[in-house]
């Protein structure tokens, strides 16, 4: 049996997951105090960011912005509707689509949690420094753009 190739770079996906979990370790207790799962919070945050759109947000857009797969989003929205956090309706322009909006209760949770989360970000900024936090945001934006452009082809063996 041949030996696997040794890696020269650190495991970036694992590091990103570890960083996410480290940040969420501060956020989850507040979410649990408000009886919210991580996924429910992501949906509420998206809806809170678009609260001015009175017609609601198409569920496909919510799925993309909250990084939830459609089937998962369906279950999350069902529970959130049951708990009075969101309202769903048919899209006025296309009855095949549905839209969702946060209820007053949902927006109250967004407002309450935003204070706690912003305080945590302020703490992170104080620990890392404003420039370092801005650099982190910038690097993450660059990685997202770089990996999202589809130009990397692992089968392309041309040398530069």
Report on this structure.
The chain has 160 residues and is mainly α. The chain has a single domain, classed as Arc Repressor Mutant, subunit A (Orthogonal Bundle). It is built from 6 helices and 3 strands. The protein has helices at 12-33, 38-49, 59-66, 70-82, 104-128, 130-148, and strands at residues 57-58, 86-90, 98-102. Strands 1-3-2 form a 3-stranded antiparallel β-sheet. A hairpin with a 7-residue loop joins strand 2 and strand 3. It is globular. The model has no long low-confidence stretch (mean pLDDT 90).
Measured by DSSP, the beta-strand proportion falls in 5-15%
- Under CATH at level 1, the class stands as Mainly Alpha
Please list the strands of the largest sheet in the order they lie side by side.
1-3-2
Number of DSSP helical runs: 6
Q: Tell me the CATH superfamily.
A: Winged helix-like DNA-binding domain superfamily/Winged helix DNA-binding domain
Please give the CATH architecture: Orthogonal Bundle
What would you report as the Rg, rounded to the nearest angstrom?
20 Å
Mean of residue pLDDT values: 90
User: How many structural units, i.e. domains?
Assistant: 1
CATH topology descriptor? Arc Repressor Mutant, subunit A
Low-pLDDT segments, ≥5 res: none
Helicity, in percent?
A: 55-70%
| Element-level helix/strand string | HHEHHEEHH
Overall geometry comes to globular
Number of strands: 3
How would a crystallographer describe the biggest sheet?
Answer: 3 strands, antiparallel
